[in-house]
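Run log // design_07
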């Protein structure tokens, strides 16, 4: 077998018994090819290890038909669902998706990541920024490679989109207070998480606006075990009747910890979470939470890249918000109804 880099369109045409023009049509996904011919050409491509020349395709069509995505962790619930939205939207527009992770072991920067992406056949890049990057305020994208940031904080040089992390806390705390609870304890996510810090800030601010001093803060690591340990401790807080955990895993762990310590949920302590990540995972899920529209967020971020590819200038310095939705289940007790 020839090396892929040395295989030409003519080689494929010879093996498949067609013209080079037919191979070109198959490579460019032209519909004007008989199905049986397409199969024969694709089999020849596979046998020879042929790959289309992306640069040549871009010169001909003005696009690579590929969007890049850079992120820290593709296994995290939110990131995985955002990525799914991007991939599906890209597919609907005939685009592929190229995924890269930020370099580990050194401070993450947008510039380093974009320099790597420039070596790949992509038309634009979506950054999923669940952690801080060193050059967030100084990075300036080049005119030939559109960039969209999924970030809680709006950027001065790039279009920005995200769910409303801060507003999520405001909604949940206000909801618990409206049910007659006098205060709300919080299990925060890890300090490296931008979302966790925004949710923590929203929790503190809304309590102070209501004239309530924020109680002791508990810090978890997004996993259910950290929520369980917090639940064990919160069971010994005499004034704790409501807990807001920064994600559903910690919220569910907290419920189990409270119950292990002899507390009932929601009869003794109400618990709410964020993300709606346990639906379909935990049977008979009773957890009240905020449903984040991660798939919609991913789709919209791709559309923002596509609009820039088409020459549209998107506003910077502001954030497009995909608001979450409060999902009421059975983990909150209404003290007003008694």
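design_07 sequence
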């Amino acid at each position: 077998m020839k090396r892929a880099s040395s295989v030409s369109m003519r080689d494929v045409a010879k093996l498949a018994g067609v013209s080079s023009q037919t191979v070109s049509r198959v490579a460019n996904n032209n519909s004007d090819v008989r199905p049986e011919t397409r199969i024969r050409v694709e089999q020849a491509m596979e046998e020879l290890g042929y790959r289309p020349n992306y640069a040549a395709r871009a010169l001909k069509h003005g696009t690579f038909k590929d969007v890049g995505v850079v992120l820290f962790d593709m296994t995290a619930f939110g990131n995985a669902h955002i990525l799914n939205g991007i991939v599906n939207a890209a597919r609907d527009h005939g685009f592929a998706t190229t995924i890269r992770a930020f370099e580990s072991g050194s401070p993450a920067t947008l510039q380093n990541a974009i320099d790597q992406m420039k070596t790949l056949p992509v038309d634009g890049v979506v950054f999923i920024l669940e952690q801080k990057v060193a050059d967030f305020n100084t990075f300036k994208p080049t005119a030939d490679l559109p960039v969209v940031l999924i970030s809680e904080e709006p950027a001065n040089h790039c279009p920005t989109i995200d769910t409303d992390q801060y507003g999520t806390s405001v909604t949940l705390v206000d909801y618990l207070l409206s049910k007659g609870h006098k205060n709300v304890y919080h299990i925060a996510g890890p300090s490296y998480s931008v979302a966790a810090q925004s949710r923590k800030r929203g929790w503190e601010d809304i309590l102070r606006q209501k004239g309530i001093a924020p109680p002791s803060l508990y810090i978890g690591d997004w996993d259910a075990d950290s929520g369980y340990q917090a639940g064990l401790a919160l069971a010994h807080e005499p004034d704790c009747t409501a807990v807001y955990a920064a994600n559903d895993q910690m919220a569910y762990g907290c419920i189990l910890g409270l119950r292990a310590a002899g507390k009932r949920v929601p009869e003794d302590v109400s618990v709410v979470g964020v993300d709606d990540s346990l639906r379909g995972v935990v049977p008979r899920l009773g957890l009240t939470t905020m449903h984040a529209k991660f798939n919609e967020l991913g789709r919209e971020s791709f559309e923002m890249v596509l609009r820039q590819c088409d020459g549209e200038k998107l506003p910077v310095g502001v954030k497009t918000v995909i608001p979450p939705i409060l999902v009421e289940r059975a983990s909150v007790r209404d003290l007003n109804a008694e």
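The first strand starts at residue 66 and ends at 71.
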